[in-house]
Structure formats: C-alpha cells, structure tokens
Amino acid sequence: MPTVDCACVPELQKERERCCFDKEELTNLIDGGKEKTADRREFEKMLLSDPEYKDEIPPSYLSHEDSYANELRKSCYTMLKVASAGKQYRELMNSGTLRGITKDGNPLALHLAMFIPAIMGQGTSEQQDYWLGRALKGEIIGTYAQTELGHGTFLRGLETRATYDPAREEFILHSPSVTAIKWWPGGLGKTSNYAVVMAQLYIDGKCLGPHPFMAQLRDESTHESLPGITLGEIGPRLGLNTNDNGFLKFEHYRIPRTNMLMKHSQVLKDGTYVKPKHDKLAYGTMVIVRVGIVRDAYKQLQRAVTIATRYSAVRRQSEIVPGEPEPQILDYQTQQYKVLPQIASVFALLFSANALASTYMGVSRDMTKGNMEQLPELHSLSSGLKALSASDATEGVEICRLSCGGHGYLKSSNLPRIYSATTCAITYEGENTVLWLQVARYLIKSYRAGRRCMALSESVAYLTSNPEMSHLHTLTNEALVEAYKMSALKLVADTESRLQKLCDMGQNSHHAWNNCSVLLVRCAQAHIRYFVCEKFLQCVTSLSISAELRAVLQQLCRLYLVYHVALNQGDFLRSGALTSAQISTLEDDLSSLLTSLRPQAVSIVDAFDIHDEILDSTLGAWDGRVYERLYEDAMKSPLNKTDVPEAYHRFLKPLMKSQL
Fold this sequence. Notes:
Strands 1, 2, 3, 5, 6 and 9 form a 6-stranded mixed sheet that branches. Strands 4-8-7 form a 3-stranded antiparallel sheet, with no helix packed on it. A two-stranded antiparallel ribbon has the order 10-11. The chain has 660 residues and is an alpha+beta fold. The model has no long low-confidence stretch (mean pLDDT 93). The protein is 54% helix and 8% strand. The chain has 24 helices and 11 strands. The longest helix has 36 residues, at 333-368.
C-alpha cells in the first residue's frame, strides 16, 4: 500500500488496472481473516508513523556500535509503546512489522522468541511465577544459550557442564575448553542479563545429558558481567549485525539448585535425579520456534518478490523486436521465470506454515494428556519444513536480487539485507543438512514399519503404497501431486534397499547410513516437497473464496507444481511417475502459465500489503519512482557532503604528484 496518498508511475498504474480479482480478499486470506488484517494495519499505523523510528542517517553509514545502539533504542521504545497501547508484543513479531523498524536485527529478538518460551515450556509453575512475569515486563532480558564454539546441532556433544553440589544445593556451571564457550546466541553479547543455558548435567560423576539452567549473567543494577562469567560479542556477520550475537564462558560459576528448569526432569536436594516421563517432552515445547522460522521465511520472500516484481514492471531494457521501444523487463519470459515462481512459492510456504501450526497445536494438546504418539510426526514435519522454507526462501530472495540487475546489488534496494536476514535460517535452529537427515531417519523407520503392515502417521502413510506404480495418464494438478508422491516413495524405497544391501555386505548400520546420506537427504527433500505441494492444492481447492481469486491461486499452484517438476526431472523419470513426453508437455504448460500470470503479478504482490517503510527499498516502493529514489538515496552518502574528500589530500594527491 502507498505510504501516502500519491500517484504511481504510469507503468504500475497500467499493471494495477489489469487486476482480475479482489486484492483485499487476497490480503485477508494471507493474514488469516479481515480482523487480523485490521489488527496488523493498526499496528503499522501506530508504529510506522512515529518519528522515533526515522533514521536521520541511513543505518548502512553508521559505525557498528552506533548501529547497535540505534536498533536497541528502537527495540526498547517499541516494547514500551506496544505495552502502553495494551497490545501483545508477540503479535507485532508475527506481523513482520519489526522488519521495517529494526533494519539490521533486533537485540531483543531472542528474549521474546526463545527465552520467554523456554521458561514457559520448561519451567515449573513456581519457576514461571518467579521469572516469567519479570521477563514479560522487561525487568530482566534473556537469551537462549545452546550453541557452542565447537558444537551446534548435536546436543549430546555439548561440553558446558552443570555439576551438582549437594552440600551447598548448587550447580557449578563450567566451560572446560575453548570449544565449550557458548557462541552465537542473539542478544548475548551486550543486551541480556540472563540466559537459559543448555549444559550437561553431572551428578556424582555421571553425565545425565543436556538440561536447561537459568543463569544470571550481569548485575541487574550496573549491567556488569558477574564474577565467573566472561561475555562479549562474536564480531561482524553477513547480516543481522545489531542482534549482538555473543559468546559466554563459565569459570566454576555457581547457581542455586532451583535454577534448573524442572518442568520435565528434576534434581532433588540430595542429588536424586527424577527422569522426565518422556525424553522428548522438552523438545516438543520448542517446536514453535521452527513454526516461526517457516513463517518468517515466506515473509522475507514476500518482501523480496514485491520489490523485484514492481521493479520489473518499471524497468525498461533492450528490445524484443528490433527498432521498437524498450519493453518492461517483466515482458521477457526469462524475467517472468525468475519472478513468478517466487510469488507461487510464497503461497506454498504460507499454506505449509499454517498446516504445521495446526499440527503443532494438535500434538501439544495430546502431550498435555500424556499422549506422545504424534511427536515424531511433528518433529519430522517441523524439521523438514524449516529446512525447505529456509533454503527455498534464501534461493528465492537471491533470484529476486539478480532479477533486479545491478541496482539489486545496492543496499538501498534492501535486497542484500533481506538476503542476509534469510540465509541465516539455513544454519540456526538446526543446520539444514542435519535436519534433512533427521527427516530421512523418520522416513526409513516408517517405510520399514509400513512393510510390516504397521499403521503410519498421516504424512508418511503413502509409504505403504506400491513403489512400482505405473506412470500417470493425466496431468491435472491432482495428478501432478500424485507424481510427487510416487517420486518420493520410489526414492525412499530405493534408498532403503541400498541401506539394507550395504548392511548385508557387512557394513554396520552407522557406516551404511553415512554412505547413503546424500540419497537420504534427497529422500527427505522429496518427501517434504510432496507435503508442501499437497497442502498447496488442498488449500486452493477447499478455501471459501471467490471464483476469480481461486482461478489465480490455481494457476499459482500449478506453476509451483510444474516449476519443481522441471527442476527435478530426473526423479520423476526415474520413478516412472512421468514420461519424457509428459515432461515436455509440462514445459509447454510452464510457458503458458508465465504468460497468463504476468498481467496479475503486480496486483498479487500489492495484495501482500507490505508498507513502504517495511519494504525499505528504492526499487520496490508503491509509487514506482525508482530512479528518483536511487538518486535521492545516493545523495545521503557522507562522502557526498564535500566535493573533495580529505582522503584526496592525504593519499591520492601525493600519488598524482609523484611522477611515477
């Protein structure tokens, strides 16, 4: 939507006049209903019109310290402003509005996204009474310290120790080596004064595995780090540099016994260890973080493809027919192939995120009743969708950046910043390859169980089908989803056969697994892609929407299906799901889909309803004044404050006068 009531450039005006559906209807669908759209817009109006958020100097020109201070100022101001308005801060995080406020990272993000959920999910009612209220009020600021310098995803490999001393009823937190230093948690460097720390629990010399502990890191009055604790920031990153990602080293640091979060497992005063009723209980409460990552991924891709689509409608370049005027670059099929599948991907990730959230809520309800049966299903889906959304969104944002040519390389386009804020999701909260292999383990286990006629969970029930099914006879959307299923099933069946063959040849199961790991990753990727395609089609078919909007979404769904068939032709041919002639037909379909969707592209991204302040792009603003904005932004450079820079006199002039 426009920042103010202003006219747009003729190219965008003509694009918007071609709209064949109700954009507000699509906006409501994306937000989850009219009320949620209204709430989001109210948030945006309240925040984005506030002059406190305006950057007099573009953040790119600030020093690292000044940039951190500026974003911390805005983050703290936002917490106060939202609270005074009687709003929930989590609603603001979910809306994506914060992306337009804190440009290069939010120092309080981990406090809200992981510290508070950790207390809620892993603390007893007494511990929640003690810490949760203070955390919600901002009296204490925390982070979640799990990753170490030498260990990330592999929890059992963590080195930080929490040794119980029954004589004093305390745990001794200690980092026994340089690789045991906590490394990466956002907000740890300078912002947080508390942390939920994952450490190996030791009682009487026996390691009982990783457990969560509440540790105070800084004095609540002075903010100075406490004795026995070494804190700092880890240094510049590719992006999110104002998140103050930090390091934490313990030197025999003591905390009370009651600082172990004991909702699921306990250590009694005498050192008696009480096991959790189920070893995955603590994990189940943190899956919500991965649900958030999937949502954030499609929101980042939304921003990038909005910028790329609007720019593609404004930019004119070269000739299609010699001698004729330069066309909009969106008229080139190659440009349509870059941009339109990313629009389709936004909806694929959106519907999958909604399905994952629904599954999470159902499993959470079951867990409160002691039913853990569907937890492996939730683990598999959350791991796979986190990995797929992170990689798809990262690749999609980069494609959008490249589609904007040289101007996409400018920071003022905001595409470099969106990319750096998206690609980090590939490695945090579970590195993608590790997560793919966890999904694969679930697939192989389920496939073998299915061969023994055991009942399987919904997402893997298809593994009981015959992997040697014949190819499809039609190419409807339903048939293509069936092809994805057949392709995934064949990959799983063939890989399981290879695993078994290696074991029969004398390899132990662990080495056989490693020697098949590339194929296992492909199995997991095919399985999750099938899940996403299935949910996309289900939503488009079942939603209560107008015929005009359904027609657009059906085309986007088909584009998504055909696009990923074209990218992975070998899997479909190998499985027998599709023939080479059918794939050739689908390539014709792809060309037709690009042509038919092209007139609606700008209207679709307009329906994403992303405020100019959140896009923060010279290329993607609602009015399309690309070239004026590029020039205006260039003039903000500190180098342009003087005609002749001081560096000329110090370095360049002596060189030019040296008569080399």
